[in-house]
Protein backbone atom coordinates (compact mmCIF):
# COMPACT_ATOMS: atom_id res chain seq x y z
CA UNK A 1 0.00 0.00 0.00
CA UNK A 2 1.38 3.39 -0.95
CA UNK A 3 0.87 6.61 0.87
CA UNK A 4 -0.27 9.43 -1.32
CA UNK A 5 -0.05 12.99 -0.26
CA UNK A 6 -1.71 15.75 -2.09
CA UNK A 7 -0.82 19.38 -2.10
CA UNK A 8 -3.15 22.27 -2.58
CA UNK A 9 -3.12 23.53 -6.12
CA UNK A 10 -4.46 26.70 -7.64
CA UNK A 11 -5.71 26.61 -11.20
CA UNK A 12 -6.27 29.86 -13.04
CA UNK A 13 -8.65 29.88 -15.96
CA UNK A 14 -8.58 32.95 -18.13
CA UNK A 15 -11.61 33.58 -20.27
CA UNK A 16 -11.46 35.92 -23.21
CA UNK A 17 -14.43 37.85 -24.45
CA UNK A 18 -15.35 37.19 -28.08
CA UNK A 19 -13.97 40.63 -29.01
CA UNK A 20 -10.65 39.93 -27.25
CA UNK A 21 -10.39 36.61 -29.08
CA UNK A 22 -11.12 38.33 -32.40
CA UNK A 23 -8.54 41.04 -31.76
CA UNK A 24 -5.97 38.37 -30.91
CA UNK A 25 -6.74 36.66 -34.22
CA UNK A 26 -6.42 39.95 -36.13
CA UNK A 27 -3.10 40.68 -34.41
CA UNK A 28 -1.87 37.27 -35.53
CA UNK A 29 -2.82 37.96 -39.15
CA UNK A 30 -1.00 41.29 -39.13
CA UNK A 31 2.08 39.70 -37.52
CA UNK A 32 2.18 37.02 -40.22
CA UNK A 33 1.83 39.63 -42.97
CA UNK A 34 3.46 42.82 -41.65
CA UNK A 35 2.88 44.77 -44.88
CA UNK A 36 -0.85 44.05 -44.92
CA UNK A 37 -3.09 47.08 -45.34
CA UNK A 38 -6.83 46.42 -45.29
CA UNK A 39 -9.99 48.44 -45.61
CA UNK A 40 -12.93 47.48 -43.43
CA UNK A 41 -14.62 45.68 -46.34
CA UNK A 42 -11.55 43.51 -46.88
CA UNK A 43 -11.36 42.69 -43.19
CA UNK A 44 -15.04 41.77 -43.21
CA UNK A 45 -14.40 39.22 -45.96
CA UNK A 46 -11.13 37.90 -44.50
CA UNK A 47 -12.54 37.30 -41.01
CA UNK A 48 -16.21 36.70 -41.97
CA UNK A 49 -17.47 39.61 -39.89
CA UNK A 50 -20.27 42.12 -40.12
CA UNK A 51 -19.29 45.77 -40.55
CA UNK A 52 -19.90 47.00 -36.96
CA UNK A 53 -17.90 44.14 -35.42
CA UNK A 54 -15.02 44.54 -37.86
CA UNK A 55 -14.88 48.31 -37.40
CA UNK A 56 -14.97 47.98 -33.62
CA UNK A 57 -12.13 45.44 -33.58
CA UNK A 58 -9.93 47.43 -35.96
CA UNK A 59 -10.60 50.72 -34.15
CA UNK A 60 -9.83 49.07 -30.79
CA UNK A 61 -6.47 47.94 -32.20
CA UNK A 62 -5.79 51.50 -33.41
CA UNK A 63 -6.54 52.85 -29.91
CA UNK A 64 -4.23 50.21 -28.44
CA UNK A 65 -1.45 51.39 -30.76
CA UNK A 66 -1.16 48.10 -32.66
CA UNK A 67 -2.69 49.40 -35.91
CA UNK A 68 -2.81 52.73 -37.70
CA UNK A 69 -5.45 54.00 -40.10
CA UNK A 70 -4.39 56.09 -43.08
CA UNK A 71 -6.31 58.75 -45.00
CA UNK A 72 -7.68 56.16 -47.44
CA UNK A 73 -9.21 54.11 -44.61
CA UNK A 74 -6.67 51.29 -44.71
CA UNK A 75 -5.53 49.68 -41.48
CA UNK A 76 -1.87 48.71 -41.19
CA UNK A 77 0.40 47.53 -38.42
CA UNK A 78 1.75 50.53 -36.54
CA UNK A 79 5.39 49.38 -36.38
CA UNK A 80 5.75 47.02 -39.29
CA UNK A 81 9.10 48.34 -40.43
CA UNK A 82 7.73 49.40 -43.81
Question: How would you sum up this structure, described in words?
Answer:
The chain is built from 3 helices and 3 strands, in the order H-E-H-H-E-E. A 3-stranded antiparallel beta sheet has the order 1-3-2. The model has no long low-confidence stretch (mean pLDDT 89). 15% of the residues are buried. The protein is elongated and about 70 Å long. Helices cover 44% and strands 10% of the residues. The protein is mainly α and 82 residues long. Helix 1 (18-32) packs across helix 3 (51-63).
Give a summary of the structure in a few sentences.
The chain is mainly α and 82 residues long. Helices cover 44% and strands 10% of the residues.
What are its keywords?
82 residues; three-stranded antiparallel beta sheet; 3 helices; 3 strands; 44% helix
Secondary structure: elements and pairs:
Blueprint: H1 18-32, E1 37-38, H2 40-47, H3 51-63, E2 67-69, E3 75-77
Antiparallel strand pairs: 1-3, 2-3
Helix pairs in contact: 1-3, 2-3
Number of strands: 3
* Overall pLDDT metric: 89
Percentage of residues in helical conformation? 40-55%
Order of helices and strands: HEHHEE
Rg calculated over all Cα atoms: 19 Å
What is the 3D shape?
elongated
Structural class: mainly alpha
Determine the strand fraction and express it as a percent band. Answer: 5-15%
Major β-sheet annotation? 3 strands, antiparallel
Low-confidence runs (pLDDT<50, min 5 residues)? none
Number of helices: 3
End-to-end Cα distance, whole Å, is 66 Å
The strand line-up of the biggest sheet is 1-3-2
Amino acid sequence: MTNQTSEACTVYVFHRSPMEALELRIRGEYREMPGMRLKVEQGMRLWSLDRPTCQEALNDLVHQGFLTRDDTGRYARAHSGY
